[in-house]
Design a protein that fits this description.
Elements (H helix, E strand, L loop, with lengths): L5 H31 L14 E4 L2 H9 L5 E4 L7 E6 L6 H16 L2
Antiparallel strand pairs: 1-3, 2-3
Helix pairs in contact: 1-3
């Protein structure tokens, strides 16, 4: 095998603190989101991971109507049930996470 590319390795070393900081920030966002949900059990997720799957077309429509971007597509083919997922990133603000959780709670309070 070839040795690591020196420029790539230098970039990794120089960005390591940023990577670690963003990773902690993302974990904090995931924890905040989960702590704010009244019914986290409606989501399929792996603890500490930022992806939250669900099977509720009404929630998808509700969130889309409130300008929340999420994934929703038929998989593995167009005849399959849709797969829906909310993915959090470290770039999401705490305010955005709180708004998302508030909307999800509101949806399930009214349905």
């Amino acid at each position: 095998a070839s040795p690591a590319n020196p420029a790539g390795l230098a970039t990794l070393i120089q960005s390591w603190e940023l990577i670690q900081s963003r990773s902690r920030q993302l974990q904090n966002r995931v924890n905040l989101f989960l702590s704010l949900l009244e019914n986290p059990d409606v989501f399929l997720f792996i603890p500490s991971q930022p992806a939250f799957g669900y099977r509720n077309p009404g929630l998808t429509d509700f969130l889309k109507n409130h300008n929340i971007l999420l994934t929703h597509f038929h998989y593995p083919n167009e005849d399959s049930e849709p797969t829906s997922r909310i993915v959090l990133t470290a770039a999401h603000s705490e305010k955005e996470i709180r708004r998302l959780a508030q909307l999800i709670n509101l949806y399930f309070q009214s349905h």
